[in-house]
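Issue: copy button drops trailing tokens. Both records pasted manually instead:
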Amino acid sequence: MNTREFVKLLLKSNPEERNPLRIRLIIIAWIYPTQNSFLFIQRKERYAKLNIDKHLILIKGEDKTESISRCTYANGKWHVVFAKDKTYSYNYNNVQWLKNPVSLDPAATIVYRSDQPLSGIKKILVFDDYIRICFVTGFKKVY
């Protein structure tokens, strides 16, 4: 299998694995299968952030999605790795991980807060009981 066939196979894989940086690193590891290239991949992936368009992670009721690089559940506890490679363990009840939101069209939806319409909305993502609003300024808020 040559590099081009490998890339095509990789692109047919899971959509969450189509991150260009991840694909580039996997190709490096495939072309140069040394222990150093795999270590390079592991180091780079640790600092990747979760996609806030697909995930909402609340720790003790506060949105921490943007600062988390990995979150796993094992032995009755959540193990959360933050962007600076610090790992913390949390009780099961302290972490809520919501996935696959429903996206609403901001042009066709009016969002009110305290009886006042919000303006400058870029995205509206509905995660079960929570709504993440992304504004054109880059500010994000969970309600």
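Record 2 (pasted manually too):
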Amino acid sequence: MPHGSTLRLFFFPDFARMYHMLTFDEFKNVDLRLGLIKEAVRVEGSEKLLKLMVDLGEKDAADLPVLRQIVSGIAKSYTPEDLVGRQVVIVANLEPRKLMGLESNGMLLAAHDEEGNPVIISPIKEGKTGSKIT
């Protein structure tokens, strides 16, 4: 914060009117994980979608990494080359959903800038791939 500026706190007495409120137990059911994007390609026929292959630290019976396919609407703001090797926050326990015929097995979290473009949520420093975000 710049020198001499003041921080103003605003009190909203009824958050329930502003947001859909979750109980703490409901929030505990959301499984947020730190994922590592291993592959990224544009989805043919879509201007918005990228198909991501994400490592969430999961292993198969032979102890080999299992990559999750996640389809995300970030292609207008990010190229596949921007994303490979980047750690991101993933909702790991979301029900699968088909987008343009591709099954998405999770959701990449993003905010939006002033123009409405997606801004990916990433850690400031690298963490352990697959770690639970608490």
